[in-house]
Amino acid sequence: MRELPKLYAITDRRKYGEDFLGTLERILKKGVKMVQLREKDLKGRELYDLARKVRELTDRYGALLLINERFDIAVAVGADGVHLPERSFPPSVVKRLFPELIVGFSAHSLESAKFAEEEGADFITFGPVFKTSSHPEAKPVGTMELKKVVSQVRIPVYALGGITWERIKLCYKNGAYGIAGITIFLKDGNEGADTGEGP
Length: 199
Prior knowledge:
Largest sheet: 8 strands, parallel, barrel
Strand content: 15-25%
Number of helices: 8
Radius of gyration: 16 Å
Helix content: 25-40%
């Protein structure tokens, strides 16, 4: 598997606005090279149709595409992988059925991060590191917990949740491999973020 990009954009149609594909293309033009299609409310056919269009777009910009949870859709559209929520299938199930797929996993604790690694996940997102408008009910884990998780797993850890361009350096300083999020990529200011140096 090739080295994973540092920036991981997660889609949300409510925040992307009416021109979903146009918004995603603007994000890809900024240099984001990995996208998770995460539209959990869409049923199979709708998600498949959207995933095909997103696959064409990510191909055009040389970006990886992961589909949230639905490995059947990922395989059907030729996506690069799937991203599994914490309470979804164990990563080993997907790896056994489709060894070619990249498998990401959403971890919210050290125990969950270790489980993901043992199960063969290729990377995890960890958070929310800071308070986030996407999940206002979720208690932030903080940068010290991020640092602890990074020190105890060997797979890449993407910091997730409430991250602004001003906070990126703090995440990298505490060992994050990369940055994942929704809102952060809708704003300007990502120059140099993929280097690990922050803006």
